Amino acid sequence: MNRSRRLAPILELAEKKEREAAQLFAQQLKKVQAASQGADSLRGFLDNYHARYQSAGEEGFTVKQLMEYRAFLAKINNAIEEQASSLRQAEEMLEVCRRAWDQARQHLEGVAKLVQQANREEQALASKQEQAESDERSARKAARKTSFAD
């Protein structure tokens, strides 16, 4: 069995690993986008809540309303911090996935180059053998002509 055929399963495995790494990266990218949208949504909600509170505050608040407002603000801010933390973790994991994908892609490229090199060497050897056979046939033909000529 020639070298390129022996390397074929290794190439297929490298291709599979690269595809899987790319899929993981894409999945993690979606998670980052979702976490980012969640954070943006919470910040938008907080801004809207502030605006409504300010317009309602022109009429004045009771102590109870003020305490409820502050408690609700604390909850929203806590949710924003948690979402920001989730976003940071998702971004860190995205970077890990990106590096893994890069590594898998580089490995695939290396294996592919090795297979190409093996194919070139096999083709060169086949050409050399063909040329040697052709030269041998020509030499036999020439030898037959000279033996008939004698």
UniProtKB/TrEMBL annotation:
It is found in: Cell membrane. GO terms for molecular function: cytoskeletal motor activity. GO terms for cellular component: bacterial-type flagellum; plasma membrane. The keyword DNA damage does not apply. Residues 120-150 are annotated as: Disordered. Keywords: Bacterial flagellum biogenesis, Bacterial flagellum protein export, Cell membrane, Chemotaxis, Membrane, Protein transport, Transport. It comes from the Bacteria. It holds the Pfam family FliJ. InterPro entries: Flag_assembly_chemotaxis_eff, Flag_FliJ_proteobac, Flagell_FliJ, FliJ. It is a peripheral membrane protein. GO terms for biological process: bacterial-type flagellum organization; bacterial-type flagellum-dependent cell motility; chemotaxis; protein transport. Residues 130-139 have a biased composition (Basic and acidic residues). Signal peptide: none annotated. PANTHER family: FLAGELLAR FLIJ PROTEIN. Belongs to the FliJ family. This is Flagellar FliJ protein. It comes from Methylogaea oryzae.
